[in-house]
Amino acid sequence: MIAIALGDPTGIGPEVTAKALAAELPCDDTLYTILGEHPLIRELSTERVRVIATERGASPAATAMVCLKAGAEMCLRGEARALVTAPVSKEAIIRAGYKDFIGQTEYLSALAGTTNTAMMLLGADENGRWLRVALATTHVPLRKVAEHLSREKVDLAIELAARACAQVGLSRRRVAVCGLNPHAGEGGNLGTEEQSTITPAVQACKARGLDVHGPFAADALFYYVLRGDYDAVVAMYHDQGLVPLKMIAFERGVNWTLGLPFVRTSPDHGTAFDIAGKNIANPSSMIEAIRLAKKLAQR
Q1: Same domain, yes or no, for 89 and 161?
Q2: Cβ contact 250:151 at 8 Å
Q3: CA–CA separation, 64 vs 49, rounded Å?
Q4: 3-state secondary structure of 79
Q5: pTM of this prediction exceeds 0.90
Q6: pLDDT score recorded for residue 127
Q7: Number of domains in the chain
Q8: What pLDDT was estimated at residue 43?
Q9: pLDDT at position 58, please?
Q10: Residue among 28, 27, 31, 53 nearest 41 (CA)
Q11: What is the pLDDT of residue 45?
């Protein structure tokens, strides 16, 4: 059974969920539980789709957090094989009183009692060429990235990226690692993080037998990853990895939380409040998130 947390009910989460399930239900006999309340979702209730109207919060954002927590707890209790999370608004959640909220990845990691997680964003272009990007840091202001980066975080992202390649059935698990600085630091002349932090992590992973290479200058690396020289890439910060991913798979990208004790995926887009309720939201990313969750849950 796949659990789906509906996200912010005033965004496009209910719409893309309804459209995605309409596309996916005829494909197999997967069971779903939707956590959240919305008119579009009530229409989906069948023998294979259970709808649980969770407790309403004081605001739509607070309701989204209730749904997210309920879905994660279902997985932790073994009642669901995977959790797909529809978009939430970080700004609205913080405004609703969750002052320490950074993102769904970090929230779910804390709920599961682990820090050994990483974000992976993955998607293919129209020619079937994949990018699979794991992040060494997640939702960190750019000016603080260097101080948040550590050998342990880079090492963990490499390890989880290699494991993810195996989980999606790849025969090869070759991981490329970005540098942090322009030109990967130019031998220490444009920054020393490559020498002090990233290279030692790469070397430690190589010593454990992982097929990992770098650090490379990020401005050129993604070209080689996209043409198939590598199976996954570890980026040092959010936009370094997500800009190229969204360039090639904006409508089909999936966010996958690596390292949780359960499968969690989500569409790689936000709440899109400006188009909510207009029936024009593209469900492609949600469809891909559900498909990946089903694939991983079967392994």
Answers
A1: no
A2: no
A3: 19
A4: coil
A5: yes
A6: 94
A7: 2
A8: 81
A9: 84
A10: 53
A11: 81
Are residues 172 and 48 part of one domain?
A: no
Point out the residues of the chain with pLDDT beneath 50: none
CA distance to 35, 39, 73, 185, per residue, from 290 (Å): 15, 21, 19, 39
SS3 at position 56: coil
Residue reference for tokens 């890439």: 233
Residues 163, 65 share a domain:
no
Q: What is the pLDDT of residue 258?
A: 98
Measured CA to CA in angstroms, residue 187 lies from 141, 150, 182 at distances of 25, 19, 11
**285 plus 177 within the same structural domain:** no
* Cα 101 to Cα 110: distance, rounded to the nearest angstrom: 11
- Give the integer Cα–Cα distance in Å for 194 and 34: 44
274 and 177 part of one domain: no
Do both 204 and 171 map to the same domain?
A: yes
Instruction: Dump pLDDT digits (tens) for 70-121.
Output: 999 999 999 999 999 999 999 999 999 999 999 999 999 999 999 999 999 9
**Are 153 and 185 within one domain?**
yes
Domain extent at residue 89:
1-114+260-299
Element (DSSP H or E) covering residue 213: strand 212-216
pLDDT at 241: 97
4, 32 Cβ separation under 8 angstroms: yes
Strand partners, 124: 130
- Going across the sheet that includes 263-267, the strands are 49-52, 32-35, 2-5, 82-85, 263-267, 254-258, 118-124, 130-135, 232-235, 175-178, 212-216
What's 182's domain CATH number?
A: 3.40.718.10
> What's the whole-number average pLDDT of the chain?
95
Mapping DSSP to helix (H, G, I), strand (E, B) and coil, where does residue 176 land? Answer: strand
**Interacting residues of 101 by C-beta distance below 8 A, sequence separation 6+:** 65, 90, 93, 94, 107
pLDDT in tens, 34-65: 999 899 988 888 889 999 988 788 899 999 99
